Amino acid sequence: MSTVESSPALTSSPGADASAEAGPSTEAGDSASVPPRIVPKKHVPRLRALDGLRLIAALMVAAYHYGGRDGEVSGAWGTSPQLQFPTLHTWFAYGCLGVQIFFVISGFVICMSGWGRSLRSFFASRVSRLMPAYWAAIVLVTAVFALPVVAYHAVSPSDALVNLTLMQQPLGADRVLGVCWTLWAEVRFYALFALCVVLPGATRQRVILFCASWTLAAAIAQAAREPLLDLILMPEYAPFFIGGIGLYLVHRDRRDAYAWGIVLVSWLIGQHYAVARLWHAPDPQFFSNRSSTGIILVVTLGFMAVAAVALGLLNRANWPWLTVAGALTYPFYLVHEHLGWVAIKAYHQSLGLPSYATALLTVVTMLILAWLLNRLVEDRLTPRLRSALSKPR
């Protein structure tokens, strides 16, 4: 899932993070040959509603992992989740689209946090937000899976060490965290945005050109079926990141026709990729049977929810607890799948709790663990790492 984040110094996706702050502003220099860099307003209100959307997206992914698919989780339940949740498993299957919603939020937040920043500051904010909780999750899951009482396969020591770099996927190593594929997508998005927007300096014109160029290049990559282009341009996920960027431009100026055009085109292409990947004809061999209409609806609701934040329609959702929810989303996303298997087996098979109580208690357990990771790891290491990486040499 991407993480997404909430302040200019943080991240978004289930890997990036989104607790967004930002106030709309316009650029006066768009008609000049060299548009001036726009520095975002300071001390602007926090977009707490975006924190709430992040938590909803994370819970969608958790519902999918616990009750919307087969695989390792079936061993934790003792039977297929289809039998554990005879009615809800069909709805839980749509939870995987929480990742696409994460990516939309990530596009919004990364554009916001990169605006007016130096490359060093942007790099420091991304690394310090992403890595401390990720390192802790890698160590924790590896250690738990190595316990004799836990009947799950632990990766080799070499692969576990490679996982600490976040480069395990391109290097072909076994993954400690199943969700880390979304972080790999986030990292590639960060790199593209940093090179094309942050390095030369963010302006409205430059961001629009970036969105248009990436959209066209991703379509060409899809047609060319060239693995290297697919790896760099991510045609399947680009529309969601780009749509989030467009929505941040809308947040800055709701009358910006170009921004709305970016959002519309991104939604049209994004729903196409979501349907192409997740829909299949009814078949008893498949666990799920997501309808194309259902997939389009979930993608549309995700775009609409972030658009509501961008337009200020959710400004009344300004409750302080949403900030806490946003802080827990990323560590929860990291640990909920694999450690959730362990919790489900303990609660359901060992203690004999019913399915729905087990699912709810597992979510609560993972949220408590996320709170501990946030307080003991992120709160202590993130500021120090950001400060160390921000110092000029």
Overview in brief:
The chain is mainly alpha-helical and 393 residues long. The protein has helices at residues 48-67, 72-77, 81-84, 89-92, 98-114, 119-145, 157-163, 168-171, 180-198, 204-224, 227-233, 238-252, 257-278, 292-310, 321-350, 355-390, and strands at residues 4-5, 17-18, 20-21, 46-47. Residues 1-13 and 15-43 have low confidence and may be disordered.
What does this protein look like?
The protein is mostly helical and 393 residues long. Helices cover 66% and strands 2% of the residues. It has 16 helices and 4 strands. The strands form 2 sheets. A two-stranded parallel sheet has the order 1-2. Strands 3-4 form a two-stranded antiparallel sheet. The longest helix is centred in the C-terminal third of the chain and has 36 residues, at 355-390. It is globular. Mean pLDDT is 88; it is low at 1-13 and 15-43.
Give the topology, please.
Blueprint: E1 4-5, E2 17-18, E3 20-21, E4 46-47, H1 48-67, H2 72-77, H3 81-84, H4 89-92, H5 98-114, H6 119-145, H7 157-163, H8 168-171, H9 180-198, H10 204-224, H11 227-233, H12 238-252, H13 257-278, H14 292-310, H15 321-350, H16 355-390
Parallel strand pairs: 1-2
Antiparallel strand pairs: 3-4
Helix pairs in contact: 1-5, 1-15, 5-9, 5-12, 5-14, 6-15, 6-16, 10-11, 10-12, 10-13, 12-13, 12-14, 13-14, 15-16
